[in-house]
Fold each of these.
Amino acid sequence: MTPKEKAEQLFNRYYVMMLETDSEISEEITISILSKQCSIIAVNEVIADANNKVYHIGRNGLTDYDYWWEVKQEIEKL
């Protein structure tokens, strides 16, 4: 999965969860902002964890750290 696809997947999971949770916050802009923030928080945790481990090069040629850093950049573009 490319970093862009992973970013979209994370964002969409949070977006759907928030949309279904409470009809009072179902304003699309608010949910989009919160989904983006939650996705970045999750990726920051993975980056912090990957930074403390031996780097593994995946099929895409990126280390785990680089992959998740690119995912974070893609989330910020959403």
Amino acid sequence: MPANDPTTGSAPRFPLGQTVMTRAAELTLDPEDMRRAIARHHAGDWGDVCPDDQAANEAALEHGDRLFSIYHSRTGVKFYVITEHDRSITTVLLPEDY
């Protein structure tokens, strides 16, 4: 069983694959905010998504679909963390990058 993440206290629920960020996210977001969001996403804490998207993420864990989370930085900037259906890549991006 995977070790618990010290940030979330939870075990990872799926593979992240390669973790990348868009240029806009890199220039806008604090690396610590991104790291914490990725850890939450990895643990299945989908952040600020609506209940329907939470349910879709839970189903995606079972069926191998894309996983989508929404977070806010400490300065209030909204950003997304998306893991592709094949779990090959996880991307941090701003809404305007989507």
